[in-house]
Design a protein that fits this description.
two-stranded parallel sheet, six-stranded antiparallel beta sheet, alpha+beta, rod-shaped
Length: 152
């Protein structure tokens, strides 16, 4: 019975360690602030723009930890608006409204390929595996205890 308690304690300690480790490792790091518009990544520069044209879109999903599809940004909150820049093709650059009436230039860097990745799927599988192992261990210990009692 003591071995089951030790096994359970060690298993839970390992499980907690893996969960904490996964939370640290699975965070995404970004090279630069960006927005995604129509499937392309636009790096937001520190260059202010005054000649904005019509609104063309907005951030639909924000995260500084995970990657998502759609009009995603790693820096700007949901609802941040995108604008065309007068005299510049949107295939080259767009403007991002970073504050009311303040716009920054965002240059197109290339296609944005991303799908939502759930970093906790791996952790969930480990948790289920540990619980199954614990249940089997308890059942085996109970079975062995009954065998010993029946032999006496």
């Amino acid at each position: 019975m003591r071995s089951i308690i030790r096994f359970t304690a060690v298993s839970l300690t390992i499980l907690i360690g893996i969960t904490l480790h996964a939370n640290i490792i699975l965070a995404t790091s970004w090279v630069y602030p960006f927005v995604v518009w129509e499937g392309y990544t636009y790096e937001v520069l520190d260059e202010k723009i005054t000649d904005v044209d019509e609104e063309i879109g907005s951030v639909t999903r924000y995260s500084d930890m995970e990657t998502y599809s759609g009009n995603f940004s790693n820096t700007y909150k949901k609802g941040t608006k995108y604008y065309a820049i007068q005299g510049i093709d949107t295939a080259k650059a767009i403007a991002v409204e970073v504050e009311d009436g303040i716009y920054k230039k965002a240059e197109r860097r290339g296609p944005f390929v991303a799908e939502k990745q759930d970093p906790y799927i791996f952790v969930e599988k480990i948790i289920v595996t540990f619980f199954v192992l614990i249940i089997f261990s308890v059942l085996i210990a109970i079975g062995l205890t009954f065998k010993k009692k029946n032999r006496r």
